[in-house]
Design brief:
15 helices; 19% strand; 435 residues; Peroxisomal Thiolase, Chain A, domain 1; two-stranded antiparallel ribbon; 3 domains; alpha+beta; 16 strands; ten-stranded mixed β-sheet
């Protein structure tokens, strides 16, 4: 059997606590917090309420796709600032949108095989702080200028300077573009909309539902147990996901123009996830650690799978990863109580739902005898998703795992799957069980 087809084996892995920051929508300028600031602010209250000292962690694992230049191995930077001590090792993982989930998976597997007993794992991203870069021509010119030692040489290079050298390279746009197929992520969503016949009206209705569900969750206080309030240096506080639009209507969504294919496209800013800053952490523990520190248990990480697919249709990643997970655990869709599918785009989630319910797709693409089945919309993203919450790339995988555990507790569900698509043509899916 292929090693990647083997389920997580060994000791049980428990999630004992977790927290996150609010997701703060980027508004054209760098936000008030860097990625390490966000991770630190989420970690401090979480660690302060534990019955053990931060120095007893076996390791710290943090997912982040675009750490800043002062955040090399951002996990170590945050671990030291959070008081975990010099002796606790920390490392950073990067799997694009799956980075936060990869951190949890890595922690869980180390606990399962006995390498660790207590791990802090999560994800962070400050997309508003993504770098703006010099282009290659400017970098080349600067290099030659700096090497020039004489005044005549410097004057010669100065005469060669061109204003076009100052054209910036927007790091975020480059990071959201797949270099192997040359497509920005929004265009891959357009491909899925065309392939599965998803209409603009379907996308906008899905986006509206995401905002309304998040609004209801905020109004009813269902997110307060997972969100830590942030305070900036100016005394301003942030206590909720601020990209939500309680007043969103189908008419307002319909008025928005396509972003990625201006002539024929259907994907707009309104039915896409938002560019956002945020961080999330979970504490994972072995049974031994639970007993030693008398820890409460939220749930159990049962298994996690990763799958690859065509980068041009990367949004279908949850289908491939979830199918692998369900097969490996010998489960059917109807045996999963609640789902969190990260809403990179409304079209992408809708395409996943249609693909899972399509016999032909499941036979040809997944090698199954029949369709996986249909996911009940009332059991999917019950408190909204990234269209309303936002999608801080390195954080999202950890956020949906944390929130799904909260949903299972609140709703009395037994099992759940958190899954997401990943830029570059991958998918990740994690099976969780309520304590």
């Amino acid at each position: 059997m292929n090693p990647k087809d083997l389920p997580m084996q060994g000791r049980p892995v428990f999630v004992v606590d977790g927290s996150r920051t609010p997701c703060l929508k980027a508004r054209g300028v760098p936000g008030p917090f860097t990625a390490s600031d966000l991770a630190l602010r989420a970690a401090q209250p979480l660690l302060a309420r534990q019955p053990f000292e931060p120095e007893v962690f076996d390791q710290i694992i943090l997912g982040c796709a675009i750490p800043g230049p002062d955040e090399a191995n951002i996990a170590r930077v945050v671990a030291l600032r959070a008081g975990c001590g010099r002796k606790v090792p920390a490392w950073t993982v990067q799997r694009n949108c799956g980075s936060g989930m990869q951190a949890i998976d890595s922690a869980a597997r180390d606990i399962a095989v006995g390498r660790s007993n207590l791990v802090l794992a999560g994800g962070t991203e400050s997309m508003s702080h993504a770098p703006v870069l010099f282009n290659l021509a400017m970098v080349t010119w600067l290099g030659k200028w700096q090497r020039a030692r004489s005044l005549p040489a410097r004057l010669r290079y100065l005469m060669q300077f061109r204003p076009t050298y100052l054209a910036p390279v927007i790091g975020l746009l480059r990071g959201l573009t797949d270099p192997t197929v040359g497509l920005i992520m929004g265009k891959t969503a357009e491909i899925l909309a065309w392939r599965f016949g998803i209409s603009r009206e379907e996308m906008d209705a899905f986006a509206q539902r995401s905002h309304h569900r998040l609004t209801a969750a905020q109004t009813e206080g269902r997110l307060t147990s997972e969100i830590e309030v942030l305070f900036d240096g100016q005394g301003k506080f942030y206590d909720h996901d601020d990209g939500v639009r309680p007043d969103i209507t189908l008419e307002k969504l319909a008025a928005l123009k396509p972003v990625f294919d201006r002539d024929f496209g259907l994907v707009t800013a309104g039915n896409s996830s938002q560019v956002t800053d945020g961080a999330a952490w979970l504490i994972l523990a072995s049974e031994e650690a639970v007993r030693r520190y008398d820890l409460s248990v939220m749930g159990q990480v049962v298994d996690c799978t990763w799958s690859g697919l065509d980068p041009a249709q990367m949004g279908l990643g949850p289908v491939y990863a979830s199918a692998s997970l369900l097969q490996r655990q010998q489960l059917g869709i109807d045996q999963i109580d609640y789902w969190e599918i990260n809403e990179a785009f409304a079209a992408q989630v809708l395409a996943c739902l249609k693909a899972m319910a399509d016999d032909s797709f499941c036979r040809k693409e997944l090698g199954l005898d029949r369709a996986l089945g249909e996911i009940d919309h009332e059991r999917l993203n019950v408190d909204g998703g990234a269209v309303a919450v936002g999608h801080p790339v390195g954080m999202s995988g950890a956020r949906i795992v944390l929130h799904l555990l909260r949903v299972l507790q609140e709703k009395g569900g037994k099992t759940g799957i958190a899954t997401l698509c990943i830029g570059g043509g991958q998918g990740g899916a994690m099976l969780l069980k309520r304590a």
